[in-house]
Structure formats: structure tokens, C-alpha cells
Amino acid sequence: MSGAGSPHSLRSRLRSHRPAAFGADPAGERMVRIRRSPNFADGVFRNPEGGRTRPSGGSMVEFAKIYFARESRARRVPAAPVPLHPTTVADLAGPATSGLRVTWMGHSSVLAEIDGRRVLFDPVWGERCSPFSFAGPKRLHPVPAPLAALGSVDVVVISHDHYDHLDLPTIRALASSETVFAVPLGVGAHLERWGVSSDRLRELDWNESTEVAGLRLTATPARHFCGRGLRNQQHTLWASWVVAGPEHRIYHSGDTGYFAGFKNIGAEHGPFDVTMIQIGAYSEYWPKNHTGAVPDPGPWPDIHMTPDEGVRAQLDLHQGKPHGVMLPIHWGTFNLAPHPWHEPAERTLHAGHKAGQAVATPRPGEPFEPSAMDPAHPWWREVAEAPSGGWAAWPAVAAVTIKDDREPDLAGDR
Asked: pTM for the whole thing?
């Protein structure tokens, strides 16, 4: 069958009229490359280790009861305005003293200044992580600085195509610059629809690398899923990322459940001076799924880490030992799960201290350098609803000094 009435023609017309925020489906040579991927089987991308490993504690009905309960809703947002760092723009105007400076902009958006270059991870400057301007999770705090105030960015790194990591208005703003985009396999189709030219795309499968401005970027495995439209075909890959410069190495987990592959990533690409590890938007009530691919509508317990799993991943990346600085990400900016707003950071600080791992807890927009990091400060307690039993007296996590031999000097209460 062919012509105007063919199913293929109808699908093409429907795709052309769908909202731009849904992005585009991979096609042509991009789809050929996807089908050749060793991580693509039976028509979908597959997670490492196949099916789910962590059991669910409930059903979607139980999840909904907890998520929409009035008391639960109140705990999932800050009780007062989030205290942003007030001088982000001025602080970023000068170079990093040590050659490595990291600024958490909220959620998973991080500006990393590494060996004279600037890398922007998962930039989301939009008001909502949603395809619509009138619905969907809304920011719980403003962005710490205008996108234009960051100055030139050498490479933008995207972990996957969910709305809280790949934001249409932000990408369109960056498309007018000269920056390069490093993305997982298949994600380039979205960016091309939004105005990014193909010559500025570096589209990688797991364990593939590219060179940008003297930095080596490697897409590494993660345990998650993908999709932006009403029908997610699992044709775009998700990834964690390693960025290696002449002097420093950093790691961004993207979204991921805990899996054994962290040890392999660390053994091959570590040690890391700074890791950005996802520790928020988890729930034991999400239903389990035992297939290797994650179908609609998601999510499931094994596609996000708890704070304790995040610290465990950090240790795995360094062969079971504390090392460098861990920056908790994927919390604080959007209300995406039933846990209290402050809980991911509070639990990560506690788990990090028990493990002897330095944890950075900057306010949104507050740059820090691992070689001159202040002790961790639980600033969220100033604006969160206090737990019924009061705040635990976690000892401050010690600051870290990275020595020339890349071994951390953990000072303080051990």
C-alpha cells in the first residue's frame, strides 16, 4: 500500500503535527546504527544485567495513595524559599584556582570547569519538566543564574531524553551558540529537530568516546529507560558519562538504578576527583517489572538509586574505598517522588559520613573546588519541615584535599 492513505504516510503526518517538545524519532542511518548496537535487542535498548533486581513494596494504587495524601504533599516541598547562592555569576567570572570547579544548578544540572574547559551536564533552565507550559512538575526554586551568564560552554552533555534532563527551551537557547553536544545514541534526533546541526553532535553508544576541546568524553552504562512521547519505543539510549582532562577526571551518573557495573566503570576510567551521583526520586512503592527493557508507563524501583545506594555506587567506582568528592544530584528542584523534599540530601550526608566519604552539599549555584571544599553543611534544614523526631545530629563530613597522587586526605572526625 502506498500514497496518501498508507499507514506509513499517516504516521508521518501525525509525527509532523505533534508538539515540538516531544522531539523526533530516530530514523534513517541513525536507526541503522541503533539496530547494530550490542545494547539493542528485540526492538528496544536493554539495561545492563537484564531484568529488575530490587523488589517492589507495592502497586501503583498504593503509590497514588501516598503520593496524593495531603500530609505527604506538604513534606515533598520546602517550607520556605530555597536559599540560592547569591553571587553565582561573579564567582564564575574568574578561572578555577585548582583547575577543577563544580557548580550544582539544581536537580541534575551541573557546570563543571575542568582543566580550562567548561562542561554543562543535563541543563534544565525551563520552568517545568514537561512537554507543556501549563502542567507538569514545576521548579521549587529559580535557576541560580541566567543561562547566558555562564559564558561560553565547550560541550553540553545529556544523559537521556526525559524532560527533567533534556529541556526544549534550554537546548534551543544553546543551539544558537557554538557548543558541541555529547548525547547517547538516538538522542541526537531530538536535538536536530530543535535546531542543533548534525556537525555539532557527538552521539555515542555505551563505552564509546569522543574528543572535544582537549577533553575525552565517554558514554558509560546506566540502568534506566527513555522516552518523551505518549508511546515510548525505547529507541534512545540512556547513559552515565566520564569526562577526562589532562589533570582531572569527573563522572556524572545521569539517572540510574544501582547495578554491579559501577565497579567496571571505576576500574576502567577512574579514579574520579568529583562524582555527580543521582540520589533522589526513589520509591519502594513503584511496581516491579522483570523484563530487560522498561515499557510504558514506568517508573520502577530499579531505575533510581536511594541515597544509600548512591554512596555504595560511589564506593564501587573507587574499588570499595572512599575517594574524592561526591556531589548528590537529582533532588531539591522538582517534586518527582513521595519521599520528603529534604530526605535525599539528609540520608546521603549520613551514609557518606558512615562510609568516610566526603560529600559536597552546596546550595544551588554555589561553586566549589574539591581542593578547597568547606565541611558539608545541611542548609536544607533551614527551609524544610522538620521530621517528627527532630533533625539527627550527623557529624559534618570532612573536607577533602586532593593530593598529587590522587589519593584523598580525609581530615576531621574519623
From this structure: 0.87
Give yes or no for a contact between 347 and 72, defined as CB atoms under 8 angstroms apart: no
Tell me, yes or no, whether 221 lies in a domain: yes
Hey, what amino acid is at 395?
A: P
How buried is residue 29: exposed, middle or buried, by Cβ count under 10 Å (0-12/13-18/19+)?
A: exposed
- Other Cβ atoms less than 10 A from the Cβ of 202: the count is 18
Note whether residue 53 is domain-resident.
Answer: no
What is the mean predicted confidence (pLDDT) over 290-300? 41
Q: Judge contact between 177 and 152, C-beta under 8 A.
A: yes
**What gap in Å lies between CA 411 and CA 398, rounded to an integer?**
6
Per the structure, the complete domain to which residue 293 belongs is given by 59-410
> Rounded to 5 degrees, what angle do the CA atoms 148, 154, 155 make?
100
Q: What's the DSSP call for residue 128?
A: B
User: How far from the centroid of its chain's Cα atoms is residue 346's Cα?
Assistant: 19
**Cβ distance 344 to 280 under 8 Å?**
yes
Strands (E), 296-411: 325-329, 358-359, 367-368, 400-402, 408-410
Local structure of residue 394 (DSSP, 8 states): P
Quote the pLDDT of residue 17: 61
Strand partners, 244: 216, 249
Q: Is 208 a residue whose pLDDT tops 70?
A: yes
Bridging pattern class, strands 274-278 and 249-252: parallel
Reading the block at residue 11, the C-alpha cell is 504516521
Q: If we measure between CA atoms, which residue out of 109, 162, 106 comes closest to residue 333?
A: 106
Tens-digit pLDDT profile for residues 69-94: 656 677 889 999 999 999 999 999 99
Has residue 38 been placed in a domain?
no
- Contact criterion met (CB below 8 Å) for 54 and 282: no
Domain for residue 90, yes or no? Answer: yes
- The answer to whether the CB of 255 falls within 8 A of the CB of 160 is yes
Please give the tally of structural domains in the chain.
1
Nearest residue to 251 (alpha-carbon basis) of 263, 265, 238, 264: 265
**For 202, left (φ over 0), alpha (ψ -120 to 50), or beta?**
beta
* Domain at 275, CATH number: 3.60.15.10
Q: How far apart are CA 178 and CA 323, in angstroms?
A: 35
For residues 318 and 324, is the Cβ–Cβ distance under 8 A? yes
Beta-strand relationship, 325-329 and 274-278: parallel
Question: Scanning the structure block, which residue is given the C-alpha cell 559534618?
Answer: 396
Say how far apart CA 174 and CA 190 lie, in whole Å. 14
